[in-house]
Design a protein that fits this description.
The chain has 7 helices and 2 strands. It has a two-stranded antiparallel sheet. The chain has about 130 residues and is mainly alpha-helical.
Length: about 130
């Protein structure tokens, strides 16, 4: 199937599909006239890639995960992937805490409970330090 057909079948833009190829996430072969041709299983592969991107994983983690989507995976491979996914999840949780602290500081300022100087005192480092307590 050609790139336009794959785009229509998956909802991914042609630009996204070319990016997936550039990142080593998707493969195509070129026809004599230069058109990209994808295997029929590319629809499932693109759906898997999109799910992992929407979960916040990077291209590198997704690239490492793709072999595990097949039948030739080992328990060790899956364990390493799960460890990496947990790390990504934990980093997202830390980012959420920092954002919540910043929002709380801004809410205090807007409510008249804090001064602009108070905003400067609530630095990202302090928010991170307070999370460890």
């Amino acid at each position: 199937m050609r790139i336009g057909e794959l785009s229509a079948a998956t909802g991914a833009s042609s630009r996204s599909l070319r990016y997936y190829e550039q990142q080593g996430l998707l493969r195509s072969r070129r026809t004599a006239n230069g058109y990209r041709e994808y295997e029929p299983d590319a629809v499932e592969r693109v759906a898997f890639i999109q799910d992992l991107f929407s979960a916040g994983l990077s291209s590198q983690v997704i690239r490492d995960s793709l072999p595990l989507a097949g039948h030739a995976r080992t328990e060790a491979d899956c364990s390493a992937l799960l460890t990496r996914v947990r790390e990504v999840r934990d980093e997202l949780a830390r980012q959420e805490l920092r954002l919540a602290q910043r929002r709380k500081t801004l809410d205090s300022y807007l409510a008249g409970e804090a001064t602009p100087r108070g905003l400067l005192a609530a630095s990202p480092r302090q928010a991170t330090d307070s999370m460890a307590d």
